Structures
1.
Amino acid sequence: MALKKLGVVPNYQEITSKTVIVIGMGGVGSVCAEMLVRCGIGKLILFDYDTVELANMNRLFYQPDQVGQSKVEAAKTTLAKINPEVVLETYSMDITRVASYDHICDRIRRGGLDGESRVDLVLSCVDNYAARIAINRVCNDLDQPWFESGVSENALCGHIQLLLPGRVACFECAPPLIVEEGKSEKELRREGVCAASLPTTMGLIAALLVQNALKYMLRFGEVSYYLGYDGFCDFFPTWPMRCNPNCASPRCRELQAYYNAQGWKHPQDANHKHADSTSRKVKDEATEPGPAEIEARKWGITEIDDKDELKSQHSPQAALSQHLPDARPLPPSEETQGAEAASASEIEDLMASLKKLMSQ
């Protein structure tokens, strides 16, 4: 509620009426669920078919005494203790099975707090291609907005991606290279090597995912359509991907035609509509300043309108130039020259003493 008082999120109380489906309760999904519960989400629907193992303890959320329990039930127990006001619904099932399709569709259509309305958002936190394709097809069929996320095998890279069917690229619009080449996902896995897991990377990706989910549901700030993370150099690439007119999903192509006819503009185009085009207001020069902006002006803080100028100030090259020393050596001062001469004399005396000791 402090966010509301500060004028950052004027409608934060709406979070208590929102319903989110989290698919995949692993290192990213379980932390997302905890964050949403602590943020005061109204309802969470959790999907996973796996059980808690001791090998999961290098991640966040799960406890050693939960080993052997299904992940969704273990999560439900912990989340209910953190915030008993949140409605929790769990399903221990493999979403890639054909029999699961109708059930997931029903939960998206009627999983809201009232038992009749559609859920607000789906978060994909799965770790394999088949599961992502299953979620993509369900969300395409229902025109359901969702976020996809993932952490790389080396545990130092990851990403989040907002998918709006028919408006920005779906998961089948730009398939992984190995899939496009007709190979199996199993060929990526090296024999005797399992994917690494760092709680730091998974917690970071989960935080980025939930932060953008909040911005999308409560219509504040700017939602990232795609945000990557390279932990080797703390690099965060971001860009919105366009739909593929030749997407393998017929439903995606159908929705592309529909939204093009509705005048949808891609985020890279001028005057594009925001992620939530039905209710989000675009700030322009005529908009009255909010409390936060009024407070900033009082202290002499102004916004930079020139995006090119802002990028140049905060580019990696600019940041490096502020911290790298000048490569050209400075001419030595008289004091330095004297010190260097004294040091040379001392070294010569020391070498003479050593030679004298050796000769004895």
2.
Amino acid sequence: MVVYMHFNMFQRKTKRYRVRRSGQKCNYRKLYRFDEDKVAWLSDHFLGESNERRGGALKNEDRMRTFLRVVGDPGFQSGVGEDVGIHQTTVSKTCHNFAAKNVGKGNIWLKFPESIEEMESAKAGWRSKYNFPCAIGALDCTQIPIKKPPSHGDEYINRKGFPSLNVQATCKFYETFSSVACGHDCLDLVNPM
């Protein structure tokens, strides 16, 4: 028995892409927690150049904005997708790919002892000074209360309901800072190693 099939049955349907929103210029910092120029810098620094050339592929700045939107205001990925104009699965894949691609860049921002000798020295210091074995550093975060700024003051209200700045610090056993990040965007990283 011979079966003849007509090739028109297997033609692909034309793909239809959602119209993407570019975001409101007046709410840009509120939505993404950074100014446009800093989002462009983050995109270049963390994502590099994109080789993706498909018709509906996201540009790297769109990927960065999607990632920043998810981590800056964690909610439902479908809501972020609606805001940006992409599907929830694209939001999920974008965040996963961003995290996987940038795990190796942690050494630029996070500074810990690098050699075996430095690690052993740090462990010995923590053990002798504080009786705390196997530590190479300490990390803590706090909210520093501030007066509510007259412009954009609501951006500084923390989860406990008062205006503050977020501060994260790491220190060595001899009570010196190895890194400090302060502010709601924490881009001002001081690293006096």
3.
Amino acid sequence: MANTVLVSTPASVNEISTGKNQDAQEDSNIAPSTRRSSPSVPQTSASWMSCVQSSLINQGVTGEPLNTILESWRSGTRKQYHTYVSAWVKFSSDNSISPMNPTLQQVLEFLSFQSKTVGYSAVATARSALSTFIKIDGVKVGDHPLVSRFMSGLFNQKPALPRYTETWNPQIVLNYLKTYPTTGNLSLKQLTQKLVMLMALLSAQRTQTLQKLSLEEMRASPGKYIFHISSLLKQTSAKGGQNRHLFPITFTSYNVDKRLCVVELLTVYIERTASLRKSTKQLLICYVAPHGPASKDTISRWVRQTMKDAGINTSVFKPHSTRGAATSAAKAANVPIHEIMNTAGWRLDSTLAKFYDRPIINESNFAEAILTSSSQ
């Protein structure tokens, strides 16, 4: 559960401001229309949360309702928004703009200024951040028709292209995992990395989700392990209906090739880490002393290293690409779409189509096939 946000006594915008910045210098890249004569400008260190809090207080929202509203933004979103609101506050200070009550032109100038150094998606995040506490003409600034039109024009100038236009073949990594020693002869490092890589591919989950796997929420039965996850995840949504929470993650035995049996690996892993994990109930722990719970970044590093060792180009494909590789391979193998969606935790099939369904890189190509046939 997220930490409760402590709210100070109601304050006006001026109470989080420093007054006019006497040392503000003109920026030749900013049009004169973005300047006002005597605004109240928050310190450049003012947080995004303080801006949102001040906006809500000005609307008459205080106390526990205010705390609850502030909890509606998760930590990842807060970190993203803080970056761009800090840039906005500095921009406002440098150009003598009221950060809480700017004009439409001033907001557009800021977004244009940001677009000189970042891409469309980052500018879109900046727009969303400002929309949490700025209204113009009675609407959130991000919903203003001219802001929307500006973003359309920016997209035409700087198209937001997908990170991947194709994905790697999971079979490459699976073949590499087959070369590991037998399960009983694996070092703890090898056991951990092989297990994590298989779980990432077979569940099509983010490393964030793998980190949340817990022995307390695990159910074991012959040939099967089922993990329930009660923690908030990126895909957890109050608007998801029956799919608001991730379906239980199930790992089943694979008797066709024991070298790729995740259940066998899990059984051995749980046994070998029992004496190392002390009081932690998190499934994945570090394989080096003091064997604490593995962080999301550590798990990502394990996945990246295994991908690299298997021959995947990790300068192009990041650990998160396991999700796209697995779901694209499943779709190519004619796995029903609803099963892919339930496994990956998606509510809309458009998510698969838009972000993850990519052609799998084929090591051979048309020309090579023609040349090969001619030599036969």
